[in-house]
Amino acid sequence: MAFIKRLTVFNLVSISFFLLTALVCTVFIALSIGSVNIPIPEIFNSIFGNEANEVNHRIITELRLPRIILAVAVGGGLSVAGVVFQSILLNPLAEPYILGVSSGGTFGAVFALFLGLTFWGQQLFAFTGALMVIMIVYSLGRRGGTVNPNTLLLSGVMTGAFFSALILFFITFVDGSFRSALFWLLGNLSLAQSYEIWIVFPIVIILSAILFLFSNRLNLLSLGDETADHLGINSKSTRKLVYLFSSLLVGAVVSISGIVGFVGLLVPHSCRIIFGTDNRLLIPASFFVGSIFLIFSDLLARTLISPSELPVGVITAVVGAPVFIYLLKSQRSFPV
Predict the structure, then answer these.
(1) Residues whose CB falls within 8 Å of the CB of residue 144, separated by 6 or more in sequence, listed in order
(2) Residue 42 has pLDDT above 50, yes or no
(3) Residue 336 domain-assigned?
(4) In b/e form, how buried is each residue of 140-161, taking b as 16+ CB within 10 angstroms?
């Protein structure tokens, strides 16, 4: 049962500030822990330009900090997309990975690399791939002019599997150095270049902010399209716009991280239990919690078998798959 019974401006601001503080603390913990442990005071010295050990300074600023910023973008972005998909489909099982959107975006990025395109070409193809998949899944999920959530989910799983197979197909015909893209199928935060991270991060923030502006409309859509239309919301155009922005968000994220599964499922569901179903709070809360979750997941991925590391998608799948099974079994309307 949610702890927030009635959302107020004070609740929104105070909870957001608390989660932001928790995110900052998580960032410093992740900066400190690794194959080389660095004391927190030295991290402050390194970040704020005071005297610091040169080797540790490079570890912090060139290796760990960009990777943590990427974890914030990927975890927050996928969580916000998960909230939106679950809200408009009225199904807690909907999320970018299950719906195949992540696979579509990754396929677009891999195909752009196959063609030898630059970063912006990869972004464009990733956006197109994510949007194409959500259009395919949405069209397959429509029955008699309405969307069947169960059919939509099954269509997403099959479409995602198809695009994952296409990714493997293209990887088969490229040189060995490009085979690192196989890690994209499992999700990896170590392959992106620093300049790519600092470009994608503001894109994720902007798109998340735009989706937050739709939060009240998403609340009305949860009452049903007919009720939303009577309350002055054009439900069809709102759904199309939200689908578009969510697909762009997922495309931006997976173009540099690959397929990081179950973040968009686990985080929104957990936040909905704690904070309630009001999207005005659920969207920012999910962004912060998703960022924290993926930072800790990546910390485990790079320290469990140090000096080697696991793809972060392995950690999120180990946690997320049992939750998905639980939700699947608890959905009475879902044929199991």
Answers:
(1) none
(2) yes
(3) no
(4) bbeeeeebebeebbbbbbebbe
Q: Is 143 helix (H, G, I), strand (E, B) or coil?
A: strand
* Rounded CA separation 64/31 (Å): 6
What is the spatial distance between Cα 170 and Cα 255, in angstroms, rounded to a whole number?
16
Domain presence at residue 3: no
CA torsion angle for 167, 168, 174, 176 (degrees, to 10)? 120
Span 233-247, pLDDT tens digits: 888 888 889 988 998
Q: Give the count of alpha carbons within 13 A of 244, CB side only.
A: 8
- Which residues share a beta bridge with 143? 146
The range of the structural domain enclosing residue 14 comes to: 9-330
56-66 pLDDT per residue, tens: 888 888 889 99
Counted domains in the chain: 1
Residue 225 zone, left/alpha/beta (φ > 0; ψ -120 to 50; rest) = alpha
Q: Can you list the alpha helix ranges (DSSP code H) found in the chain?
A: 9-32, 40-47, 54-58, 65-89, 101-114, 119-141, 149-172, 194-213, 215-221, 225-230, 235-257, 263-275, 279-303, 312-330
Cα dihedral across residues 323, 328, 98, 281: positive or negative: negative
Fill in the DSSP letter of residue 142: E
* Residue 175 located in a structural domain: yes
pTM: 0.90
Cα separation of 107 and 293, whole Å?
25
Q: What is the CATH number of the domain that holds 52?
A: 1.10.3470.10
